[in-house]
Design a protein that fits this description.
Length: 426
């Protein structure tokens, strides 16, 4: 049992875990996160791509092993703190009056021929407290005793941040929501999961605002949305890049947008000609029997190229149509032959892509950062330091013993003791 405790409370283990977490965090920053598996195989090659997927480096911060490292590091911090806390607490509670004047730490000794009361007055003016002993007068000055415990505040802050990260990884979620103007949705397409998540409220995109610079490059895109509760209670919000909106603990970020075209098409079928406007979001009915679906589109060498699917709802038969702008083509559904023409671009509209994120552990992380700042202030600016001065009459002279104790700043303590002796001698 002692061997297990020593292992978990080992500083060497803490250092190894820290560097492992830092190393994989760097990989998680360098490697693009939450992309389709094919992305990694194409970008990094077959071998390294499969290593990335195997080690879950495609979503490093939510991987099982990363959560395990964080939990292991948290256990190590707790055991290290418990193991060493007893010594720190003893130093914190130690009464400076209980020191043996004959065994002061870091003692320096001088004899001066001065007035005893003058030395007492000087030490009191310097902020020293006084205690009478059977051997003489003991003076002490105790500063920043809380510094002995500051490091444990840093440890506790790290534990809080780790708990917050684990809570967010397990009970939080991230995904995208796709919205068209005027439409509402409560569906979130989660990263790395096949099944979507349905929120208990809907988000309606009232208007998508897209602004560009004079040279045509995007300047800003804004989603004007309304959060709709089941009881028809609504909350309006603007979502901008780097200015998310929050509702019921869920954050909505303006991630991107998609420009969706509308095409003018002409179809001749059953001796009749139909002119329709088609876009990728909805199928278009023709003559109450046929359905036309736009499946893919692109611009190629200055021409619009698109792939359509025309389906006969009565028979279930259909045909794929590959169309080039301005060039009529034929299609065939069973024995019927028709003509199809992609005329031109009728217009375009935008789809807003919102990144949806819920992180129930974020407040623990924020609290951890705040406590870490306070703890580091204590560690680096509140150096525990105790000074002692012992005065004893020795014939015509006065014996002065000066001693002190500091947690880390030994050279600073020596300078302080030398400075104190000079003041007592002058």
């Amino acid at each position: 049992m002692k061997t297990i405790w020593d292992f978990f409370s080992s500083v060497k283990v803490a250092v190894v875990l820290f560097f492992l977490i830092a190393f994989f965090s760097i990989l998680g920053t360098i490697i693009p996160q939450v992309q389709p598996p094919d992305f990694y195989l194409m970008k990094y090659g077959e071998t390294f791509g499969r290593v990335i997927l195997l080690l879950q480096l495609n979503d490093a911060y939510h991987s099982v092993w990363y959560v395990f490292l964080l939990l292991f590091f948290m256990i190590n911090l707790i055991t290290c703190s418990v193991k060493r806390f007893k010594v720190s607490w003893k130093l914190f509670k130690k009464n400076p009056e209980e020191v043996d004047p004959q065994r002061l730490p870091n003692t320096q000794e001088i004899k001066v021929k001065k007035d005893f009361s003058q030395l007492i007055s000087l030490l009191k003016n310097l902020g020293f407290a006084q205690k009478e002993t059977s051997q003489g007068l003991l003076f002490y000055q105790d500063k920043n005793r809380i510094g002995y415990l500051s490091v444990y505040l840093v440890h506790f802050s790290l534990v809080l941040m780790i708990i917050g990260a684990v809570v967010g990884a397990i009970w939080g979620f991230r995904g995208n929501m796709y919205l068209l103007e005027g439409e509402a949705s409560n569906q979130v397409v989660l990263f790395k999961k096949e099944n979507p998540l349905f929120l208990d409220f809907s988000v309606r995109l009232n208007k998508f605002i897209f602004e560009v610079y004079p040279d045509g490059t995007p300047k800003e895109y804004i989603s004007n949305v309304t959060f709709i509760e089941k009881g028809n209670n609504t909350v309006d919000a603007l979502i901008k890049v780097n200015h998310p909106a929050k509702h019921k603990g869920i954050a909505f970020y303006q991630a991107s947008y998609e420009e969706i075209p509308k095409f003018n098409v002409k179809i001749t079928l059953d001796g009749k000609t139909f002119e329709k406007i088609v876009d990728p979001t909805l199928p278009v009915e023709i003559a109450d029997r046929y359905v036309l679906i736009l499946e893919a589109y692109m611009a190629h060498q200055g021409f619009l190229v698109a792939k359509f699917n025309l389906l006969d709802q009565e028979t279930g038969e259909g045909d794929e149509i590959f169309a080039i702008e301005g060039k009529p083509s034929e299609f065939k559904i069973k024995e019927k032959i028709g003509k199809f023409e992609l005329k031109d671009l009728a217009g375009k509209f935008y789809m807003s892509v919102l990144q949806v994120k819920k992180d129930p552990g974020v407040w623990l992380v924020y609290a951890g950062f705040l406590l870490m700042i306070l703890g580091l202030i204590g560690v680096y600016f509140l150096e525990p330091k105790t000074l002692w001065v012992f005065l004893k009459e020795d014939g015509e002279k006065i014996l002065i013993k000066v001693g002190g104790m500091a947690k880390r700043d030994k050279s600073g303590l020596t300078l302080k003791l030398n400075e104190l002796i000079k003041k007592l001698e002058s």
